[in-house]
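Run log // design_07
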């Protein structure tokens, strides 16, 4: 007795060619649809009109000059985090520890500002806090790199666990030096002064420079080429003489430097304080999504970062007026990611349905009958 195998109703195949202009149009459509779905969901749960949603949504982004600057400021911070993890992911080193590495950079900055702020010049305090922030970020990123290079450990699990260790170390430091039990350590001296009275401009300029340098580094430098080769095939890297262990460690040092810089900017130029959870605020995980959605292209990361900041700030304003709670912007951002990731799936894969074999067999049988006659 022979078993009959049934062809699946549908299966997925990877697309070999898909026009770039069509992919960009699909992504733009997904962005517009996600905003509209956010409006519909908000209208259903608040009994407010769609006009109410869009009025306050755009006020939260462009309503005042401060709101606009704040949107671009948060875009810059998200972009910096995405740039930090991009070389790792391009190398297929799955670094999920950006959150902890940034927090350790923030901790390094906070240590210097806390003990030297007010006792020495602000210039020296800022310089030393930047140096220690970079050192802390590098150390926290190099640990999993060394273990990966030496014993081939699972970097995803290790970097994820180190996020929680970073939170514990930060909480311990705050409780050790803070005079109050609020869980937040605030600084009054040793902080970066704004440029021309604009507290956002310095960080935006820094991130623009880093973005340009990263784009050149990944595309035109020898190190960028080695990262690409190691990510595509370790055997190929070994064959052409690339030391993959050295590349892994060097790349994680770069990641640590950028994460340390992000932590320094958050403490010394943004919050002027440190908290174990709200200082980074999930940017490390969102940065991973932005890097992946942009396919490791620094310019496209800027667009993706602005899209996320656009949704978040608009939803925050709507949530404040409609009294929807602190989690409402996160829900709206989740809707945005749902549509964008769905579009990325259909850009890279296509669904092929099973052919109707009965309809194909019928003409063949008619042809055979005619030949017999």
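design_07 sequence
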């Amino acid at each position: 007795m022979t078993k009959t195998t049934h062809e699946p109703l549908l299966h997925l195949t990877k697309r070999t060619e898909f026009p770039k202009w069509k992919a960009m149009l699909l992504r733009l459509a997904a962005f517009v649809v996600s905003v509209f779905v956010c409006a519909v969901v908000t209208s259903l749960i608040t009994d407010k009109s769609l006009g109410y949603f869009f009025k306050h949504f755009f006020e939260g982004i462009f309503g005042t000059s401060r709101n606009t600057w704040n949107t671009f400021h948060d875009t810059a911070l998200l972009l910096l985090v995405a740039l930090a993890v991009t070389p790792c992911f391009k190398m297929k080193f799955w670094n999920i520890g950006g959150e902890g590495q940034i927090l350790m950079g923030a901790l390094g900055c906070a240590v210097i500002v806390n003990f030297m702020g007010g006792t020495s010049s602000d210039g020296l305090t800022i310089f030393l806090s930047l140096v220690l922030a970079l050192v802390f970020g590098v150390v926290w990123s190099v640990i999993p790199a060394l273990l990966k290079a030496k014993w081939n450990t699972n970097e995803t699990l290790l970097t994820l666990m180190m996020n929680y260790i970073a939170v514990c170390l930060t909480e311990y430091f705050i409780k050790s030096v803070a005079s109050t039990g609020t869980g937040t350590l605030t600084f009054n001296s040793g902080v970066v002064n704004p440029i021309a009275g604009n507290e956002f401009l310095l960080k935006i300029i820094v991130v623009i420079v880093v973005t340009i340098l990263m784009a050149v580094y990944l595309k035109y430098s020898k190190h960028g080429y080695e990262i690409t080769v190691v990510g595509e095939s370790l055997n190929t890297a070994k064959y052409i003489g690339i030391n993959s262990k050295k590349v892994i460690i060097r790349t994680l040092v770069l990641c640590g430097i950028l994460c340390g810089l992000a932590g320094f900017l958050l403490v010394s130029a943004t919050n002027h304080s440190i908290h174990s959870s709200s200082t980074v605020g999930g940017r490390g995980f969102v940065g991973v999504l932005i890097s992946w959605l942009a396919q490791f292209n620094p310019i496209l990361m800027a667009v993706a970062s602005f899209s996320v900041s656009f949704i978040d700030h608009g939803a925050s304003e709507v949530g404040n007026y409609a009294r929807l709670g602190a989690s409402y912007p996160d829900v709206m951002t989740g809707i945005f990611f749902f549509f964008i990731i769905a579009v990325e799936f259909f850009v890279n894969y296509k669904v092929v349905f099973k052919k109707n074999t009965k309809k194909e067999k019928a003409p063949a049988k008619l042809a055979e009958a005619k030949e017999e006659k």
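Strands lie at 10-14, 184-186, 273-275, 349-353.
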